[in-house]
Amino acid sequence: MPHRTRPMTALLVFTGLNVVLVSTITPVYDFVCFLPYWERRREQRRLEREALAHRSQSS
């Protein structure tokens, strides 16, 4: 006898899993995107661009 499918249970599990994933994506995104490493790197790149612009203006 084949395994009996339960479409309503599968739909509820799928929807619940998606709700959990969607609700946790914002803190994870904030944690990854706003790490101090990225802030330092962004500042370093800004300083390098300013130094390069200053060098090209003075020559």
From TrEMBL:
Source organism, top-level taxon: Eukaryota
Keywords in alphabetical order: Membrane, Transmembrane, Transmembrane helix
TM annotation in the entry: 12-38
PANTHER family: TRANSMEMBRANE PROTEIN (PTHR36392:SF1)
Protein name: Uncharacterized protein LOC110409215
